[in-house]
TrEMBL record:
Chain segments annotated as coiled-coil in the UniProt record: none
Protein name, entry field: DUF1453 domain-containing protein
InterPro entries, sorted: DUF6622
Sequence intervals crossing the membrane: 6-26, 38-56, 68-86, 106-126, 138-157
Length: 172
């Protein structure tokens, strides 16, 4: 299938999601101070998307859950490992966090998105590979949800232990 045909059959919301993930990843290339509520946007999207992978599959529920959980365990370990709470500064009074710049969020967003996209394309264009592609997509769903659950646990623990930093005064 030519790329033009592939892209023309891709729903517009997929391109919008890709644009959002790229934009958010690019914003993280630079160190910045943001409200805590904004920090939770990407993890929330990926956790919901990952958990929905449990319910959008046909097959034996126990098998699907076992494969999803295997991906989630690996993802959780990667997510916890990827965040160094010592690199964050928290302003508890103003509910702000200062994060260093990093290419990791952009690469992570693209890897998860492309993993899902490629597997969905294979399933749609190669009927004989559909079951295999959807089986791997369960792992990607678990991996992405697990990654952000592990990341979130590490983030919250770091936030609770962090001293108060006045980020409004340091920004002025």
């Amino acid at each position: 299938m030519p790329l033009s045909a592939l892209f023309s059959q891709t729903p517009l919301w997929v391109f919008a999601l890709l644009a959002l993930l790229v934009w958010l990843g690019i914003k993280r290339l630079q160190a910045r101070t943001t409200p805590l509520t904004r920090v939770w946007m990407v993890p929330a999207v990926f956790i919901v998307w990952g958990v929905s992978g449990l319910f959008a599959r046909s097959g034996a529920p126990i098998d699907i859950a076992a494969h999803w959980f295997a991906g989630a365990v690996l993802g959780g370990a990667l997510g916890a490992w990827s965040l160094s709470p010592a690199s964050l500064r928290f302003d508890h009074r103003n509910r702000l966090v200062h994060q260093p710049g990093s290419v990791l969020p952009l690469l992570r967003n693209l890897a998860i998105f492309l993993g899902h996209y490629v597997l969905q394309v294979i399933a749609a264009t190669q009927p004989h590979l559909r079951d295999s592609a959807m089986g791997w997509d369960v792992y990607v769903s678990g991996l992405s949800a697990g990654y952000f659950i592990g990341w979130s646990i590490r983030f919250v623990l770091g936030q609770r232990r962090a001293p108060q930093t006045d980020l409004l005064a340091s920004a002025a």
